[in-house]
Design brief:
With 124 residues, this protein is an alpha/beta fold. 45% of the residues lie in helices and 22% in strands. α1 packs parallel to α2 (65-80).
Length: 124
């Protein structure tokens, strides 16, 4: 498990699962940096041949629409490759945002990163 940290996202491979951790809300970053790093993470999905994606929210209380758009782009990328995506470790406020946007209907939410990764194994 080698972690790689950009300014917007930290990424780590756990087996064939790419774990992406937003490092704060979009208000703390320039829009161009979010887009650039989102594209870098998409390239990492291909380069590392990631099968699944976990978005771990443990480093931020809440993210806004720009960051959510970037996360959706990553989740769609992995599902277009026939992989699975999941969210984990979000604050109560962030969980409410995800539920109100119906994101948890598209990609499940788990309390821990370990449970999110285990969920991928159970769907084989």
């Amino acid at each position: 498990m080698m972690a790689q940290s950009y300014s917007v996202f930290a990424i780590e491979m756990v087996d064939k699962n790419l774990v992406v951790t937003p490092q704060g809300d979009s208000s703390g970053f320039r829009y161009v940096d979010i887009q650039s790093e989102t594209n870098s993470v998409i390239a990492a999905i291909d380069r590392k041949n990631a099968q699944n994606l976990v978005v771990n929210f443990n480093s931020t209380e809440i993210v806004g629409s720009i960051m959510i758009s970037a996360i959706i782009k990553l989740a769609r990328k992995i599902t277009s490759r026939k992989g699975q995506a999941a969210f984990c470790c979000a604050s109560d406020t962030m969980q409410e945002v995800m539920q109100s946007m119906n994101l948890t209907r598209l990609w499940p939410y788990f309390d821990t990163q370990e449970n999110a990764i285990k969920s991928f194994e159970s769907d084989i």
